[in-house]
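Chapter summary example: a protein plus 4'-deoxy-4'-aminopyridoxal-5'-phosphate.
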Amino acid sequence: MADVIPFDQRSGSLWYDGKLVPWTEAKTHVLTHGLHYGSCVFEGERIYGGTIYKLKEHTQRLFKSAEVLGMKIPFTQDQINAACIEAAQAQNIKDGYVRPVVYRGSEMMAVSAQNTKIHVAIAVWEWPSYFDPQEKLKGIRLDISTWKRPAPDTAPTQAKAAGLYMICTLSKHAAESKGYADAMMLDYRGYVAEATGANIFFVKDGSLHTPIADCFLNGITRQSVIAIAKAHQIPVIERHILPDELTQFGECFITGSAAEVTPVSEIGPYRFKPGKITETLMNAYADEVRGAKVSAAYG
Ligand code: PMP
């Protein structure tokens, strides 16, 4: 990790509350509601060849997440879309990652925070997606987390809210300490839910099976992959899946803006062999993000 430049020490500029500011000056005070009480939502988007994939969908979800947390973003969706592009252009990033974040400020420092300013920042950094299908098809190994995704009446599960990631970081750290790449999480009922930052799919008899997104994010990549599968005449079955059923599936992969389509070879005691359907969807998704569907282009 020695050669990784800390994120607060990078060069260039980022978009902060309406304008570009020098990267290292985009500061917030330690007494910030978003930091203490988790009043914070964010997005994670990828830029491929100068185009932010599904920018509008990500911005829509950012606004939805903020609304769920009772925060009114003081910009329009069009302004945020333009700001994402402006921030990417300022850094001259063609293949990278876009991180918009919305959080409550410092005006009030207690549970009640009705009068805090809603801040918005957008940072873009280089993050090429190294796409070597043969390497990827080996699959990653997942642990099974002891943490459960909460019920929709326990936490705002349809928001991409910072607080929901507490159990993701705990699960991922526990998995990494045992040599796994990531962890699969069950939900509050004991059904298979998702990975710590990605949705999950299985293959059985030529069909895709994926958990119903009723207590976790219905990922934008998940939706893209379902559409791609249907276009390839691959049936998609959204249903509740019990961990015991994992013995019946031949293939498994996870999906996310960062993870893209990542084949899985192991989940705890269960084994999978990335095969034809995973490969087809992985390649079709890679084609789509690299140009088939343009949502916003620049440069
Ligand atoms: N679940 C979680 C917990 C995530 O963090 C992500 C990544 N945003 C996803 C699912 C996948 O969402 P998307 O495909 O929209 O990136």
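Key point: Residues 133-291 form a domain with the D-amino Acid Aminotransferase; Chain A, domain 2 fold (CATH 3.20.10.10).
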